[in-house]
Amino acid sequence: MIDGDVLFFFEGRPKALALYDAFSDRVQAEFPDTKVKVQKSQISFSNRRMFACASLLPARPAGRRPKEYLTITFGLDHRLASPRIDAVSEPYPNRWIHHVLIASEEELDGELMGWIREAYHFSVTKR
After folding, report:
1. What pLDDT is recorded for position 66?
2. Mind listing the domains of the chain with CATH numbers?
3. Three-class SS of the chain
4. Taking burial as the number of CB atoms within 10 A of a residue's CB, which of 10, 12, 62, 113 is the most buried?
């Protein structure tokens, strides 16, 4: 169920809202203890700590991104090597933040959800 804060976050972006809804449904189905927090620039998914977030922030140059998209961000203890990763940074030693831009529900596939699963388990073990 989509609440008012989520609707406000995606105001005027119906496709991004649909992508978020599909992503959120998958995350919450697999991890029912997930807490969701709508913030100014992102919607966070956390257990003990944040393990993923959804945003409208561009992770790809303007000429290379679709008109409507959703950026999924997650953290791992290692850097992923995949053409699907649009941006990556290491803000702390052995904490890698990955950004993946999605433009269709088909991109919410087993590979992406596997990375989210890994991020969920990594967040449980972080100090």
Report:
1. 85
2. 4-125 (3.90.1150.30)
3. CCCHHHHHHCCCCHHHHHHHHHHHHHHHHHCCCCEEEECCCCEEEECCCEEEEEECCCCCCHHHCCCCCEEEEEEECCCCCCCCCCEEEEEECCEEEEEEEECCHHHCCHHHHHHHHHHHHHHHHCC
4. 10
